[in-house]
Amino acid sequence: MFGCLVAGRLVQAAPQQVAEDKFVFDLPDYENINHVVVFMLGTIPFPEGMGGSVYFCYPDQSGLAVWQLLGFVTNEKPSAIFKISGLKSGKTDVYLLNFCTKIQIEKRTSLKISFLFQFTQKMLDNFYNFASSFAVTQAQMTPNPSEAFIPANVVLKWYENFQRRLTQNPLFWKT
Length: 175
Known about the structure:
This protein has two helices and eight strands; from the N terminus they run ββββββββαα. By secondary structure, the protein is of the alpha+beta class.
């Protein structure tokens, strides 16, 4: 049903089925992989209203598994290229897991919510990092009556509250 491709390697078209709705491709030497292509073989379509989430698994610095949602494939979008080179920051000398791409079949509406959650999380991280890069101490501030300053702890409090609400209900912003 699925295939996986890494540049310079043979196509893998026989994932290991680890559950009724979960398939895993094990690819050694994940530190040297920049992009992964996941695709449907065209032999078996998803049932109506279903799709497959694609996850990247790598060990964190303590060797525990970290699962990162990359995106999804559906009958309407049967292939995707995922950049993984920036996700492998948890390098350690002891690798308990090889790189693997996990394809999990779930309802398409859930796919959109998962992807929206991931996008919002990245947007929050980006905003907080951007705003924090302008932080100065009171001693470094130059008086300018036409400029307003927001304390960094206010931005941090907003960031933490938004993250908490997003975790509790990814669609809270719609109400």
